[in-house]
Amino acid sequence: MLCCMPGVAFVPALLVSWSSAAFIISYAIAVLAGHVEPLVPYISDTGTKPPESGVFGFMINISALLAAITMYIRYLLIEKQNESSHFVRSSCNIFTLCIGLMGCTGMGIVATFQELAVPSVHDIGASVAFGSGVVYITLQSVISYKSCPRWNTYLMCHIRMAISIISCIAFIPMIVFASKISMTKIDWTPGEKVKSY
User: Fold this and answer.
1) Which of 2, 63, 165, 177 is the most exposed place for a label (fewest CB within 10 A)?
2) Which Pfam families match (predicted)?
């Protein structure tokens, strides 16, 4: 089952590199085209207008695929470790994988439906992606603690749990503030009236 596992360590690194490139390239195109201000725009704002929207959509869809592959590799690794240690139920591992794949689907929705073209679908995709991501990393943290000390160090478990806690804390204000706004355009001119909904 895991005969090629030693050769797949590049996949998570490729995921991080590709995703970073997706955000940086679409940001650069959006700024150079004058579609967003250079100072800290929303990620989705940098993929709303052509030509950056095509680059953003394509690259984020590839990121979603790479994330799904990474999660499946993690699932297989835990299954293999679990054969000798029995530290977690197989159903818990499968459930965690399904939550992660749900997040990847949310990423695909965000990439496909631009922020201003279909805002409700885009927002649902973002909520699924971020919400599932928070649950996924939290479940992976719990699995890591259960596999200690044989398959993980406590330091690694603490780092994963810290990331989980930070993700949970960041997710709550994201939902609160996202529910308070309704965007119909990205660029505003001075003196322009803002519609309230």
Assistant:
1) 177
2) Frag1
